[in-house]
Each structure stands twice: as structure tokens, then as C-alpha cells.
Amino acid sequence: MDYKAYTLIGILLASLALVVPIGTTYAQTDAATTDEAEVPAINATGGGEWTPFDLTAGGQTHPIEYMITGGSVENMTIHGENQTLGVTINSMSNGTLALRLPREVIDSKTAEGSDADFAAFIDNAEYEQPGEIEPAEDTRTLLIGFPAGAGSIDVIGTSVIPEFNTIAVIVLAVAIVGIVIATARHGWFNIGQRM
């Protein structure tokens, strides 16, 4: 094997490292937004209408229920590389977003397996700490106050459902290995002169 094959194997390993989600630990900082909204009372166990949002991740659809005051929810996305649920909102005034998060979609746990606090960012500024209603066995309910004009809320946990299912990762790995083998045997992609 010459240096080209080693280079391509290195590229293969780097590509796989980018595809496979790696657990990330986030440090909590004392910085908080100065214009956080006061959290109005939302009765998250009743008295309001929960609206389902169909979140698609890993080739499956997962309903995420929410209630919002002072705005509307435009979109939700899951980001496996940093264990984040991104919520795009259109806020007209100070308000509150209540999210009922299924544990199979996103959760926040300590190393010992007990529940840990979620972190939240509003327009990329850390929110002091989202409020949480007593967690259930299969869901956790968060309350996040936001100021008028806010456009995005990111909820960060310690685990999320993968964006790509296992078959997609296997297909990618097989394709990259095929490229490496073809390149090593046929000398395609001459990187430099041979020594």
C-alpha cells in the first residue's frame, strides 16, 4: 500500500467520525440574556390546547406537542451532532413556549442515569434555565420564556434520536470503502508524483 491508500483510509475514517454522533457535554455559563421574558402562567397539564408538530428524524415522524403565547411555532428540527432540538418561532410580544418532549426523541440525563436539566438558547444567547413541570415516565415538559422579536429557541439535552438511521450510515461507509479500494487498485486521483 502506498501513501495514497493511507490518505484515502484517513479520509474514510474522518468521514465516519462526522456522520456518527458523538456525545457532547456543554458547560453551563453564568451569562444570561438581559431581556428575558417573564414566564406567564401556562397550565401545561390542562386548560390550554396542546398543538402537535410532526418532527421528522431518522426516517420516522415523531409528534412534539407545544403551547405558545406571544407568537407562533414555524418549524422544529433535530440536530444529532449536538443533541439539540431547534424551534423556529415568530414572536410578536414577550411570551412562553411550553414543549412536551418525548424521551425517545430528546432527553437530558446525568452519567448515573437520573434526569438532568436541559439547557436552552434563545437566538444563540443562553437562557437562564428553562422551567420544567414534573417529568413523566415517557415525556418531559419545559417552559421557556422569550422576548418579543425572538426567532429561534434551541433546547439542548444529552441524547436525541439520530438524524440518520443505521442503514444510511452503513451505505455511506460501504460507498467510501468502495472508493478507497477502486482508487488503490486503479490509481485514480493522482495526488502527486510517485517517489
Q: How would you describe this structure to a colleague?
A:
The protein has 195 residues and is α+β, with helices and mostly antiparallel strands. It is built from 2 helices and 10 strands, in the order αββββββββββα. It has helices at 3-19, 166-186; strands spanning 51-57, 60-79, 84-102, 106-107, 119-122, 125-126, 131-133, 139-146, 152-156, 159-160. Strands 1, 2, 3, 5, 6, 7, 8 and 9 form an 8-stranded antiparallel sheet that branches. Strands 4-10 form a two-stranded antiparallel ribbon. A hairpin with a 2-residue loop joins strand 1 and strand 2 (60-79).
**Overall pLDDT, averaged?**
74
User: What low-confidence regions span 5 or more consecutive residues with pLDDT below 50?
Assistant: 20-47
State the secondary-structure class: alpha+beta
Approximate shape: elongated
Estimated radius of gyration: 22 Å
**Beta-strand fraction estimate:** 35-45%
Query: How many strands, what sense, and barrel or not for the largest sheet?
Result: 8 strands, antiparallel
Distance between the termini: 13 Å
In total, the number of strands is 10
Tell me the series of helices and strands, N- to C-terminal. Answer: HEEEEEEEEEEH
The helix tally amounts to 2
Helical percent range?
10-25%
Task: List the keywords.
195 residues; alpha+beta; eight-stranded antiparallel sheet; two-stranded antiparallel ribbon; elongated
SSE topology:
Blueprint: H1 3-19, E1 51-57, E2 60-79, E3 84-102, E4 106-107, E5 119-122, E6 125-126, E7 131-133, E8 139-146, E9 152-156, E10 159-160, H2 166-186
Antiparallel strand pairs: 1-2, 2-3, 3-8, 3-9, 4-10, 5-6, 5-9, 7-8
